[in-house]
Amino acid sequence: MVIKRTVYIAFLSGLSIVLTRILSLRIPIGGIEGVRIGFGPLPIIIASFLFGPIEGALCGAISDILGYFINPMGSYNPAFTIISAIRGILPSLITLSRERLSFRDYLIGVGVTQVVSSMLLVPLTLHFIFELPLKPVLIPAIISQAFLIPIYSFLSMEIINVLLNRFKMLIVDK
User: Fold this and answer.
1) What is the Cα–Cα distance from 143 to 132, expressed in whole angstroms?
2) Is residue 172 domain-resident?
């Protein structure tokens, strides 16, 4: 069972790297990437919902570290690895006590996760480390998350339902 879970986490990490590093729209602000719009966080969120906070955090951290070495975007900063790990922890912590999740549960789990990571931690990190003004970073982050949170929630719910029901994927308790 450990090998199967490891393979799933590795697959989701690799998928996150491709979606983040290759298939994302990047908006530069002040000479660095200020906002990234894409589906890179989705596999990390799915790992968290399926396997729990530890595996979600591992998926997030692995995605960020390996993604940097495969396709670096600027210098490595461990703050973004921590934010990516947090993105893998929060969804399952928020929905930990629920067996069957409704769309509302997914929306709350993804919403809190994205508000904390993409609308608070990333802009604050860019502000404190790269001295970017908060307003030009925060406004596009808020606008993008208004669209991405419901999309991530819906896709997470549908993908997880397909994995659990159609393919009878065996998931051990969180």
Assistant:
1) 18
2) no
Quick check: 154 and 111 in contact, CB under 8 A? no
Containing structural domain, residue 27: 2-166
Q: pTM for this one?
A: 0.89
Spell out a b/e string for 140-167, using b for 16 or more CB atoms within 10 Å of the CB, else e: bbeebbeebbeebbebbbebbeeeeeee
Q: How many domains does the chain have?
A: 1
Amino acid at 96: L
Q: For residue 29, is it within any domain?
A: yes
Q: What's the pLDDT tens digit per position in 7-64?
A: 999 999 999 999 988 888 777 766 666 567 889 999 999 999 999 999 999 999 999 9
